[in-house]
Amino acid sequence: MLQTALHFSHTLLKEILQPGDHVIDATMGNGYDTVFLAEQIGKTGHVYSFDIQQEALSATRQKLNSGLDDRVSLYLQGHETLGQVIREDQPIKAGIFNLGYLPKSDKAVITLPETTKIAMEEILKRLVPRGRLILVVYYGHEGGQQELDMVQEFCRNLPQAQYNVLNYQFINQKNQPPILYCIEKKRYV
Prior knowledge:
Elements: H1 5-14, E1 22-25, H2 32-41, E2 46-51, H3 54-63, E3 72-76, H4 82-85, E4 92-99, H5 113-126, E5 127-137, H6 144-156, E6 163-168, E7 179-185
Parallel strand pairs: 1-2, 1-4, 2-3, 4-5
Antiparallel strand pairs: 5-7, 6-7
Helix pairs in contact: 5-6
């Protein structure tokens, strides 16, 4: 059976993640991706997780058990600031975004094309060969289409010699199901 965009994002990450990797959860949300990443990268890896809402940080902290919290740094700040937090020479194996709004919260607080683009550029600067940047774009809300347009345009303009870009979506479903983009840095650049 075909996987949802969210489940497929984890499949794409499981294929490449190994103990010791450093990864980014650019939209912490309720913490599911942060926990998933922390489990994949082992005790020697590290997860950098960002969100602007205290409730996201609190929910994520609750999900991290004592065996995982020492390999995760939670930042109560926007993903556009990750370039100020993570050294540019820090190799990053993967990054993930779930774009839209925090489920079961204020739908007026959304990710924005301008800040998302900055974060995407910062992650790509640090992405190692064969590393992947995943974007799951929820766009069925006000402002969502503009962010989807930006992500699609950004991905289309990435140089083919350096990146492969996958687009995964269900095209016969109602209510604007999320669209997944996977940017993979090529082995030889």
